[in-house]
Structure formats: C-alpha cells, structure tokens
Task: inverse folding
C-alpha cells in the first residue's frame, strides 16, 4: 500500500511545484492548495497504513492485542488541514484584493512595493 | 475510565501523577499570557482606547515571567511541563532550556517596547482593525516556538505567528502593502509547508515528534534512515524563514511596506525564530549532518551577509536600507551555525540577543525620524541634528551597535565569531564578517550623515510629531545595548550555557525523560 501512496504523493508534489513556478498568482494559489494536500498525504503515509483494525483497546487489556491503525497521523493531518485551509482562504482574499488594487495577477507586473528604476541615494552633500 | 471501575489501575506508567507546582506554570506563562491578552483584546474590540494599555500590561507581565523563567533555568537547568499529564513522548512537552528561555526573554522585551511605541504610531483605524490582538497572538506564537519541546508543535507555533504577521502586514490595505504581503504570504507559507513535509518524513523515520526523544534515538537510526535528507530540508525550510541567501527575496519585498512598528517587530523578532529553528534542529538533533553541511552553511552565511549589506548600500528608502541590514545580520548568525564550535554558537546566540534589540531600535528610530523629517527618503530627510540633537545620540549608539563598533553591543559577538572562525580554520569567513562590519558602517554612516548631520535641504516639509514616546522607547532599548557593550560577561556566560545546552543534549533529554523511561 505505501508504494502506491508514495507515487501519489510524488505526483502531487510535482504538480504543485510546476504550478508554483508560474508567474500568475491564481496558478500559484492552486499550487499552494495541492502542496498542502501533498504534505497531508505524506504525513498519512509516514504513519504507515493499515486498514480495518481500529486502535481500540479491549476492556480487560492494558494494550492493544496486535498491530492497529495508527491514530496519530490523523490528528496531525487534522491540524494541518485546518491550518492550510485557513491560510488558503486568507491567500485567496489577499490575491483578490491585490488584483483589485494592482490590476494584475502577473507577478512581473506587481512592482508597487519595489518600483523599477528607483533613484539612487544621494552620492554626496 | 479509571473513575468508573472499582479496581485500582496503576497509571504511573503512562501519566504524571504529581500535581504541577505553581513554579512549573512559568514554562507556559510566556505563551499563555499573550494568548489570553489577545483574546481579551478581541472581546473588547469596540473599546479600542483600552487596547494599548492592556497590551503593554500583558507584555510587561510576559516579560517578568520570562525573566523569572530564565533565572530558574539558569539556576536549576531546563524546565519541563507536559500537557495533559501524559508522560513524554506521548504528551506535548514544553521544555525551556537556556537557549529558548533567553531568546523568549529578549523577544518579549523587544515586543514590549514595540507596543509602547505603537501607542503613538497606531491610530484609531489601526486599533479598530486589530493591531494589538494580532501583535499579542504573534508574540504567543513566537514564545511557543522558543519554548516547545515537540517538533510538530513547533510547526503549529510557526503558523500561529505567521498568520498573525499576515494580519499585521496588510493592516491599512495600501497598494504597496498588498503587493508586499502577497509575496511575503505565499513564500512564507511555502517555507512552513515544506517544514511540515519534513516533519512528516521525520515522523516516518523516528515514530516520535518529541525533540528530546528524537535527539536520543538519532544515533541508532543513522544507518537506517536518510537523516541527511531531513537535515537538508530543515536547513532549506528554516533558512527560508530566516531569510538566508538565496531564499531571502521575500524580505526586501515586504518589510518596508507595513507600519513602522510592525516592521520593527518583524525585523527584530521573526527572522530570529528561523535561526532558532536551525540551531535547535541542526545542532541538537542532527549534529553529524550539520557537520556534513557546514561548508554549504558557511557559504550561505557569507553570501547572506555580503549580499544583504550590498543591497543596503543601494537603497534610498530608509526602511529598505534596514530590511537589507536585517538580512545581513542573519548571515552573521548563520556563521556560528556553520562553525558549530561552542565559541561560534555562543557568538551566534549573543548576536541574536543583540540583533533583536538593535534592529527593533533602528526601525523605531526610522519611525521617529519620519515623524520629525516627514518621509523615509534619504534624498529629503535632513537637518534633524539642529532641531533634535538628542536624536543623534540614540542614532549614533544604535548604528555603532549594528556595525559592531564599541561601546555598543555588536562588538563582542562579532569578536567571538571572528575568533571561532579563525580557530576553525575558516579565515575567509572571519574576513566576510569583518568586511560586512565595514560595509554596515558605510551604509549606516551615510544614513547618519544625510539624515541627521547635513543641513536641512531647501524646500523639504518639516512635520512635527512629538518624539517623546519614541525617545522613551529608544532610551529603554539603549540600556541593554550599552550594558551588553560595556559589561558583556553575564550575557556571554548565558550564551555559552545556551550553546552547551544544545551541543550536549544529555541534560535536556534527562529532564524530559527523568528515569530514561517513557519508552
């Protein structure tokens, strides 16, 4: 099972990095969303996969009888999903606002904070 | 659970049964107090008049808790508290060692002075948009990053201060702020997500996220797991947060756009959290891998400091000059990480203390100068010495500190780093540190001459904003700068003890796992 997931994760990472290399903010944002999911799947796979054995300890035992599914990655992914979702929401609004203000979503055209051809500081006085 | 059954279950193998003493709460106080203050500020969002006073009070209490925590750590060794009473590595551990506690202390001082200056710099609109709650939550994230003993928790604290910093950065929604924030937000999010991916692979290799547990298991796993890959990814992810060359381009794109207090907090505090992450992970968890990467780190350090300060020489906007000074200071801190010797790491840690204070002060100085001279452009700022001579004293002190000249605080850490570089057989790194010092003197000396010394340029408007609060903030920040410059021994011994604490993690591990148990 893990090799299949490893390949899936690799495809996710490759797609997201391709999109992140774009000049357009909207494509970069799609890349960020896929990047977050690639990482979530990485956590899931890193915790080792096991189906149909819930991590529940029987009443009369102190420990699970055999190997069970690992509950920790799910807790980690839940945290990571919440964080990446909220960041993605913020970034969407930010991208929309900067599109409204700057009139472009091309990163080459976003030169308000660092204008081209700025004058040099005074060379003497 | 246990309460429902009549038979007695022995929980001592899984849980901490001793109740936490009041002193133990000190470990979480530097995180809990800012979160609580931030929550209260959000609840009273209609009475923004109270925000400034409450935030200053909250940060003062945080500062006092940090002082007490550092004193306790220096006296008794690392302090540990594990959440939910689960024994480590199952519960999330907060572990304050000298490195974390001392950095948290200096960061809270810088934030306190920032909050003080914000009372004049942030007007009613900024307060209405939540400057103070964002600032308190950012400080909670910074404090949590310094004090946590769990690597996934470190990621969460990174995200806490990152999302708060987004809020601070776009406060005002000007064109240039949105432009800078877009680049800052996307690149920093990619950096922290990469950090999370690395944590995932680390978890896959170790099966644990507790840093003490990772440190003691690393030796046994070295042949079985690709620890070097993990170290490289950590270097890249934290290096991005610390703005190390060549992944530093988000910093000069954004740090000059927000309100000057926000820039002061970012420049003073946030990049050091990235440096702290590098120290914690590469020195404490993966020392042989750091050794392997030391050549790369040394080149990155030299490039960061030289490229940073060259950028500062070319800028006209005072805030952009300071943005590049921040980058070059990160390069100097990376030099000690590249050396990895006790002297080099102590120099890095001392430099981090110094740089948090001095960069905050330099940005606040720029804010006061803007209030007096009307603008940030070096072409129009002029003649402040004739109208406000006291300003010149503070400016001179802070610029000497940033350049590493006596009598200010930058001298000693640079001496430590230069000596450690020469002892490690890297004279070119020592040369880079000294050349950066010279170039910083040139860059900031020009700012000093143009802004303060030269007679007023004709036709420039003279705005008179009362600099009283700015003077107070700079006066308070001058005390540690002069103290570290004139009487450095106590600070050097704290930095050395912090360096020893991460070089030899056995005390840290022994505190988290008292009987070596918890397996």
Result:
């Amino acid at each position: 099972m893990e090799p299949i997931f490893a390949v899936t994760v690799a495809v996710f990472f490759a797609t997201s990095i391709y999109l992140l290399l774009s000049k357009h903010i909207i494509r970069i944002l799609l890349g960020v969303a896929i990047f977050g999911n690639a990482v979530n799947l990485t956590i899931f796979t890193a915790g080792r996969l096991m189906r149909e054995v819930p991590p529940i300890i029987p009443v009369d035992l102190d420990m699970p009888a055999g190997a069970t599914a690992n509950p920790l990655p799910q807790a980690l992914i839940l945290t990571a999903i919440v964080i990446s979702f909220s960041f993605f929401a913020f970034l969407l609004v930010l991208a929309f606002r900067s599109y409204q203000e700057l009139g472009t979503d091309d990163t080459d055209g976003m030169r308000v904070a660092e204008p081209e051809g700025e004058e040099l500081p005074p060379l003497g006085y | 659970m246990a309460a429902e059954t009549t038979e007695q279950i022995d929980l001592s193998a899984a849980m901490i049964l001793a109740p936490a003493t009041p002193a133990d709460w000190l470990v979480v106080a530097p995180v809990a107090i800012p979160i609580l203050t931030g929550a209260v500020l959000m609840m009273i969002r209609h009475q923004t008049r109270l925000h400034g006073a409450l935030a200053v009070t909250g940060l003062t209490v945080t500062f006092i808790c940090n002082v007490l925590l550092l004193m306790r750590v220096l006296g008794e060794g690392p302090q540990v508290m594990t959440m939910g009473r689960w024994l480590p590595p199952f519960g999330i551990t907060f572990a304050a060692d000298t490195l974390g506690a001392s950095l948290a202390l200096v960061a809270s001082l810088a934030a306190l002075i920032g909050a003080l200056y914000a009372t004049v710099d942030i007007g009613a609109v900024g307060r209405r948009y939540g400057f103070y709650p964002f600032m308190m939550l950012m400080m909670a994230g910074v404090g949590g990053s310094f004090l946590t003993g769990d690597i996934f928790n470190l990621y969460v604290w990174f995200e806490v201060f990152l999302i708060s910093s987004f809020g601070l950065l776009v406060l005002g929604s000007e064109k240039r702020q949105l432009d800078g924030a877009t680049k800052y937000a996307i690149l920093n999010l990619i950096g922290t997500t990469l950090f999370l991916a690395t944590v995932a692979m680390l978890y896959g290799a170790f099966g644990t996220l507790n840093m003490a547990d990772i440190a003691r298991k690393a030796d046994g796993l070295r042949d079985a797991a690709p620890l070097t890959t993990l170290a490289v990814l950590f270097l890249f992810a934290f290096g991005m947060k610390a703005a190390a060359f060549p992944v530093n381009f988000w910093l000069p794109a954004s740090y000059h756009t927000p309100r000057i207090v926000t820039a002061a907090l970012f420049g003073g505090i946030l990049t050091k959290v990235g440096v702290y992450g590098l120290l914690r992970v590469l020195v404490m968890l993966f020392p042989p891998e750091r050794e392997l990467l030391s050549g790369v780190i040394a080149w990155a350090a030299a490039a960061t400091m030289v490229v940073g300060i060259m950028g500062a020489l070319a800028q006209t906007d005072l805030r952009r000059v300071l943005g590049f000074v921040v980058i070059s200071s990160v390069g100097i801190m990376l030099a000690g990480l590249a050396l990895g010797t006790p002297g080099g790491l102590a120099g890095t840690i001392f430099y981090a203390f110094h740089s948090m204070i001095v960069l905050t002060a330099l940005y606040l100085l720029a804010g006061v100068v803007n209030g007096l001279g009307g603008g940030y452009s070096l072409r129009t700022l002029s003649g402040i010495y004739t109208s406000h001579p006291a300003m010149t004293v503070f400016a001179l002190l802070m610029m000497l500190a940033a350049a590493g000249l006596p009598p200010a605080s930058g001298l000693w850490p640079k001496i430590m780093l230069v000596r450690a570089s020469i002892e490690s057989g890297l004279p070119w790194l020592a040369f880079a540190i000294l050349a950066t010092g010279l170039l910083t003197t040139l860059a900031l000396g020009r700012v000093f001459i143009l802004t303060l010394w030269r007679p007023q340029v004709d036709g420039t408007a003279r705005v008179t904003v009362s600099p009283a609060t700015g003077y107070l903030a700079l006066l308070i920040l001058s005390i540690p700068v002069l103290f570290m410059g004139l009487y450095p021994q106590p600070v050097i011994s704290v930095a050395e003890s912090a360096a020893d604490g991460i070089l030899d993690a056995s005390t840290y591990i022994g505190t988290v796992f008292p009987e070596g148990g918890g397996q």
